[in-house]
Amino acid sequence: MSPAEPISDPESGETLPQEDAELFAILDRYMSSLHGGDLPSRSVLLERHPSLVKWVRHLELLDRLAPEGRPSERRSADQPRRGEDAAPQPFGKYELLGEIGRGGMGVVYRAHQTDLDRPVALKMILSSRLASPDDVRRFYAEARAAGSLRHPNIVGIHEAGEVHGQHFFAMDFIEGRSLAQELERGPFDAQRAAECVAAVGRAVQYLHDHNMIHRDLKPSNILLAPDGTPYVTDFGLAKMYGGNSAHTQSGLIVGTIGYMSPEQAAGHAPAHSPMSDIYSLGAILFELLTGRPPFQNASPIDTLLEVIESEPPRPRQLNRSIPLALELVCLRCLEKDPRRRYPSAAALVEDLEHFLRGEPLNVTPAGVIHRVLRWARREPTLAMHLGAIFISALIVQIKYMISGYDLPYHLVVMGLFAAWATVAVMCQFLLRRAHDNDIARYLWAAADTYLLTLTLYVADNPLGPLLVGYPLLIVASGLFFRVRLVTFMTVACLLAYTSLVVVGRDPIVKSHYTLIYVAALAVIGLVCGYQTYRVRVLSGYFEGRGGRSSGNG
Q: Whole-prediction pTM value?
């Protein structure tokens, strides 16, 4: 059938347009190839005929109509799955023995290389022959990046190629489990954790010495041999210094949420530096010691914001048996400012070796100011509350010292500030300890609204400037990224202000100004709620991608 030959619709009898006729001709040739036992590469087909991109699902259905040929020609969907006790499946010069694991875009099989009679691991593109040209380029970029490395703690790559349209590369087979699987048994003891991260750190320093950064270091990308030796794998996001790729554009987030550095999470250009790998090593050490990552939240967007803005909890707060020296090493790696981290992976390894030998570390404890700043980032909501209360109380105290008027009234106001600070501390405690954090947030919102209203009630007129407290509370509630919380705070502020008007404490002289203020509060709440809703939608997108922003899996 020629692409130029007109084709008639079997139902209507009408002649199809030239473009549709060419499409049917291409699909007809593809189907003929399948029945002839020749499995063409769909990536090549899509690259030659971009108009077929929207028809990839139909290509998969055509594949299912193809007769089963030799075992080596079977689809990757028929290959042995993880945990299956299936017969070896021929795949070129390899025999597939079972699935080891899979990620967002890649699947890894345990295999036997028949010509050299050795065990290997084969990584394939999860989408099989449906892979786009860009997926194929990224896949081979990973193979090239890892294939040039030779280190005792890095999984080596043997070859890359294609069998019946299925792209693959063969690498060392590490008998054992991933570090993530090993962590399911619980945290490591201090010595084992230090030895593991030191070995991984040597491999990372080797990468940096060869002008390469990994950018996706995490427990699932570290394999453990039976003797406990760690091996770094998965170079899908590896990048050469100064290189340019689709993964490294400014503003693009790459890596795995929870292990990426703050600059990576923010999409900043400095993320493409060895310092991001130093942070990831610290996150791995944190999890080895405590059994959990530095930041974990039910929502990916909340975790991302914590990585950017918050400080991780001190490891010893989660596990009192952790030596103080190892906590200092961990926190040094997890500094927000890259300049405050270890200057290199080698410097981190050196301190870990000092710890293992019982020698003093090179790292020193942070100063008082830096510890206060860390605490403020670790508890930002409480820090903002206490800071605002302290400044307000200081202004009131200075005014009283100057005027010296009405001591009982001054004591009442200062008592309100003290009560407000106490409530803030208690709410922060509940926020950390409560099983349902949302309940603690609603209690805090209600307490803030009530205490602000009480302060306005007892304060002297004019109160106009103090009314800015209500819109500030609404805006601050949006920082929790909960639409219902913003709605709750808006309604609470509207009711609280209405109560002031009812009891005759309305500081606004003209009634229509009161209505304007109420309308302004409602609009502020609507805008904050809508923006929060948009962020939650983005959070759902991140969650659908499994928390990983880019990479082959």
A: 0.69
